[in-house]
Amino acid sequence: MKLSDQQLEIVESEEKYILVKAGAGAGKTEVLVNRIIRLLEKEPKLSIKDFAIITFTNNSTAEMKSRLLGAMFKKLHSTKDPVQKERFHYEMELIGRVQISTIHKFCNAILKFAGPFRFENKVYSPEFHISTTNINKVISVVLSQWMEELSQGSHPLLEIMPPHQIRRQIEYFYNQLRSKGIDIQEVVEKTDQALMWMQTDQKSNIKRTLKELVLRLDEEYRKQKVGRIDVDDLLEFTYLALKGFPRLLNQVKSLYKYIFVDEFQDTSFYQTEIIKLICGGSNSPSLFAVGDVKQSIYQFRGADLNSYQGFERWINDRGKVYHLRTNYRSRGEIVEFVNSIFLRLERNSKKPHVVYEPIEPYQTAKEQISHVVKWIPSHELGEKQAVAFFLQEVDPGTYNKYTILFRTNKSMLEYEQKLNQVGIPTKILGGGDFFKRPEIRYVFHILNWIMAPDDLIRKNEVLGIPWVNFDHEKLERLYKELKRVIPIYSVAQILEEIFKNKDLNIRGYLQHYNQIQTRANLEKLKELTRTKFIGEKIGLIEYVQWLGSMIQHNQDEEQAEILEEFNAVQLTTIHNAKGLEFDHVILVELERGLDHDLLNPTILFHPETGIEFSFRRYLEPTTITSDKYHERLAQYKEEYLAEETRILYVALTRAKQTLYLVGDRNAQRTKNKITYLSWILGNL
């Protein structure tokens, strides 16, 4: 791709501090890669080792390395200077050892470089393992202790809701605090200050108890983490270490001459401050960051727009902010359609708060928008059936050019099963919920039954598996085969025996029904088992307990990546599609209501008064609400819905050739129901 004048200006800029505000499809990665190559060309003594390149995901890291290698290879073969040829050949060999990584891996490298330290009440050692503490186990301990202390006495919280609801609300609130980097001590202090001015009543008792439970949860969580840290700790500890130890900060500054950060709009408070510490002051590396506030869609992971906006001002004071508005990805008709939606939302005072900078089409629209942005009507068939019928009509040789986008993982499995039933192969891009998949549960049921073959409940669970299909004789033959190998095989080998069993014929079954993703997930389970328990002589009983725990607690794990070039329709969430592009995008669930529980959390943190709450009494229509809850809720709703508009923007701008919208645009709708469809309608 030939760089535009606008892109070339950024690539050749002499500014030390640069922020590029790049709209969807504006070629930001191309600009970023070309600037790195340009700097290497301009400075003979500069090496790729002098760069730290920070990406948002592991997939982005792999893509960045690939793009850099491609650019270096091109430079190697285009130059006639033998010195330059030798130089770029050497730089290509270094790529594998260069600091190109996510912010978490970057922070991990800094902490290992820092060595053991104690700062305030935090302790770190490079010997700590990075792992996720089971929050379910921690909250069970805390609530059990709390209820034991109550003995037979009552409590205002228990009069309002049962323990399992208290558990769910506290856990959600605590996870939100941690993901946003809100210090628990600040929550406690603000709540205590507010309590000083409150009279002693039911509301104050509930507020005080919520504070105590959150504090206990945090203390128990940290106690359980002795000798290990989680990914959120990596950011917090790095920030504290760089801020508290000037010598360490200067050492980190000396390691790099240039810092590049992609997707800066999705950084958290800690991430932003880490970059500002390293790149601020004297003897600091130059900074090149890319971001687009319209694509900030990770508040649930701690992305902080206030920090980003403060960072933009910080860059303005020291360097220059550039704009890339031309969209090179999508047809002009799609760009016009997207602009029309968001300019209308920006003008409508009753809609979410939207500040929109229009994107410019690279190619002028040549057709009517309705010829490129099309509807798949669902009023008669339902969405899944409508999508299946539509895809049955396309050329099977082009399945891999179609991608279905989902707001969440929740219904992706249902679509996958529906499409597989009608013979359409599918594969999932970057989806989570690995341990929620039915094939993983099927394997668990088989292993669980093997340990107690006479247990009727376990046996019936296995009989209902599609691979068995209530065939008792097949099950008996399977048991005889497995009984022979269980005493001498490892768990991974036992899994392979199940997968290749002739009676079950799992691999043949999955191939016949085009269940590519299911087969890949089973192979991943086997490899995950092999690598996780390597060197450990774990027995089948312990393994089944482990697998059952992973399933029960829905331990976060990505589904298997399908590396082979299968001609299959792709399924992915909007979040996982960010940064990607597809020929034909099918956007489903447009009528999914956004005014659900997430829009009305029962516990919120108010920056002035601490914990605020609104609880509906169990089995009663009444609620009990703290004084400042509605004030904080109004702000929260505005932030939440504003992010939903950005998620919609990301979804609509993934399509290159055609955008398909699934839904019934003519149906009677509930007034004021908030949906993507209600934001889109009126633009075709």
Main sheet: strand order:
3-2-8-9-1-10
Largest sheet: 6 strands, parallel
Our measurement of the CA-to-CA distance between the termini, rounded to an integer number of angstroms, reads: 32 Å
Helical amount among residues, as a percent range?
Answer: 40-55%
Describe the oligomeric state of these chains in a short phrase: single chain
Radius of gyration: 27 Å
Sheet/helix structural class: alpha/beta
* Strand residue percentage: 5-15%
Unreliable stretches covering 5 or more consecutive residues: none
Number of helical segments? Answer: 27
Secondary structure: number of strands: 21
Shape: globular
Mean pLDDT: 87
Describe the structure concisely for a colleague.
50% of the residues lie in helices and 13% in strands. The chain has 684 residues and is α/β, with parallel strands linked by helices. The model has no long low-confidence stretch (mean pLDDT 87).
Notes on the protein architecture:
This protein is an alpha/beta fold and 684 residues long. The protein contains 27 helices and 21 strands. The chain has a 6-stranded parallel beta sheet. Strands 13-21-17-14-16-15 form a 6-stranded parallel beta sheet. It has a 3-stranded antiparallel beta sheet with strand order 18-19-20. Helix 6 packs across helix 10 and helix 13 packs parallel to helix 14. The relative contact order is 0.11. The model has no long low-confidence stretch (mean pLDDT 87).
